[in-house]
């Protein structure tokens, strides 16, 4: 752990818990440090303005209490693709394999194409 990472803030600006940990330093040494709260998962750089890093100046509209975080509902997983979307993606992938990426990425002007790939200028 570098010297810049050892001086973590005492409290999280959003939930005011003391579970703040340094995550990483900037690629250029000493420019910034990224911190994260283990309770509410808020993350910030050491170079951000005080309203983002100081618990006393953080906007009240965005405050969370550790109890709020513990009682958040579980976010549902992303549902699977609808069947017609899966079919369209498979067709698009096959078309890329057969036609080649260059002809789809840079179509010739004024040639209409099937399937709505682009509208030709008339």
Q: Beta fraction of the residues?
A: 5-15%
Radius of gyration: 25 Å
Count of folded domains: 2
Low-confidence stretches: 1-6
**If helices are DSSP runs of H or I spanning 4 or more residues, what is the number of helices?**
5
The overall average pLDDT, rounded, is: 78
Helix content: 25-40%
Broad structural category: alpha+beta
Q: Order of strands across the widest beta sheet? A: 1-2-3
Summarize this structure as a short list of keywords or feature phrases.
disordered N terminus; 2 domains; 29% helix; 122 residues; alpha+beta; three-stranded antiparallel sheet; elongated; 3 strands
Indicate the topology.
Layout lengths: L2 H4 L13 E6 L7 E5 L5 E3 L4 H4 L12 H5 L12 H17 L1 H5 L17
Antiparallel strand pairs: 1-2, 2-3
Structural description of this entry:
With 122 residues, the protein is α+β, with helices and mostly antiparallel strands. It folds into two domains: 8-70, no CATH class; 83-116, no CATH class. 29% of the residues lie in helices and 11% in strands. It has helices spanning 3-6, 50-53, 66-70, 83-99, 101-105; strands at 20-25, 33-37, 43-45. Strands 1-2-3 form a three-stranded antiparallel sheet. The longest helix has 17 residues, at 83-99. The protein is elongated. Residues 1-6 have low confidence and may be disordered.
